[in-house]
Amino acid sequence: MKYFWPYVLFVVLLLISVGHCATSAPPKDSSLGALIYQDNPNQYLMGVIVKGDIVKDGKRLITVLEIAPTNTYDLFSEVVPFCGNQAEMINGHRRVVVFTYSKIMHQKDCFDLYRVDDLK
User: Fold this and answer.
1) CB 113 within 8 A of CB 101
2) Are 27 and 35 in contact (CB under 8 A)?
3) Alpha-carbon separation of residue 69 from 3, 14, 34, 65, 66 (angstroms)
4) Which residues of the chain carry a pLDDT beneath 50?
5) How do residues 43-63 score in pLDDT, each as one tens digit?
C-alpha cells in the first residue's frame, strides 16, 4: 500500500502535462486571409443624453457622456467615455438616440464611437 501513492502521483502529473486546453476558439480567417468575427464587435446603447463633458488626459481628448437608457429609472443612467472630441457627432441630437460603439476599450480608458442615430 505504501508503494501505491507514487504511482497515483505519477499518473496525475502525466495527465496534467499532456492535458492542454484552450479557453477560446482561435480566430477564423476567410479564404482571402481576412479576419471573420465569431460574435458582434459592437455595443449598442439607446437613451437620452443627460450630460456631456470633454476632458483632457495628457494630449488626448475624451468625450464623457451621461446617458439615461430608455425604459429604465433615472437611477440607472450610464457614464460612457468615448475617445476623441465627439461633439460634432453628438450635436443636434435632442431625442432618444442609439449609440453604436466598440465593445472593447481600444485605448486604456475610452471606447471608439462609430455612429449616433436618432430614433424617430
Assistant:
1) yes
2) yes
3) 66, 53, 35, 12, 10
4) none
5) 999 999 999 999 998 888 999
The span from the CA of 56 to the CA of 31, in Å, is 43
What pTM was computed for the model? 0.66
Closest listed residue to residue 111, CA positions, set 65, 80, 87: 80
**Distances from the Cα of 117 to the Cαs of 2, 3, 32, 67, 75, in angstroms?**
73, 72, 33, 14, 24
CA-to-CA distance for 116 and 103, rounded, in angstroms? 15
- Cβ contact 109:57 at 8 Å: yes
- First and final C-alpha spacing in the chain: 78
Query: Could you give the 3-state DSSP secondary structure of residue 118?
Result: strand
Take residue 32 and report the three cell numbers written for it: 482571402
Grid cell of 84 as nine digits: 476623441
